[in-house]
């Protein structure tokens, strides 16, 4: 799948350097739950293993950054702190220091191999695309349902939303249609829908 982008006019001081900037159009935010199946197929790690390892790494990275160290994660890159505060000159020594020093953010510098892998990206201009308002074709919905139920015995609106790349309102319109037609049956509650395959 291509990386979609939009060209936007720049404003402020940036506009003096260039009139346009390219901004990626994000499909959605992907978490461990989304990546779980791919990682489990490629390794012997379960979701519980990954969550435990990531929590241990997160805790250690925080500890090292708090000690003033730069952290290197092989395959990813380098993490370091950025600092902010009010510059203050000592009236007696005339030396500068920061008053109210605080962590401004965390800098990340990817390693060369990480960046090299990203050079394979393909791009698609979405500057002039209209927002998608149409529901997916019935054949596409049927195929998505078949794939999802082949993987698990029940599905959620979130599963359909990810598979068909729908908006939140779009997926709830779709599941209402599928329920009404008998293709899905709600085995959960009215507020937390969990669907099993319908009899239609």
Automatic annotation (TrEMBL):
Annotated HU domain residues: 1-125
Output the Gene3D superfamilies linked to this UniProt entry. Answer: IHF-like DNA-binding proteins (4.10.520.10)
- A GO molecular function for this record? DNA binding
- Positions of transmembrane segments: none
Tell me the leader sequence span. none
- SUPFAM superfamilies, per the entry: IHF-like DNA-binding proteins, Winged helix' DNA-binding domain
Keyword annotations = DNA-binding
| InterPro entries, A to Z | HU-HIG (IPR041607), IHF-like_DNA-bd_dom_sf (IPR010992), WH_DNA-bd_sf (IPR036390)
Q: What is this protein called?
A: DNA-binding protein
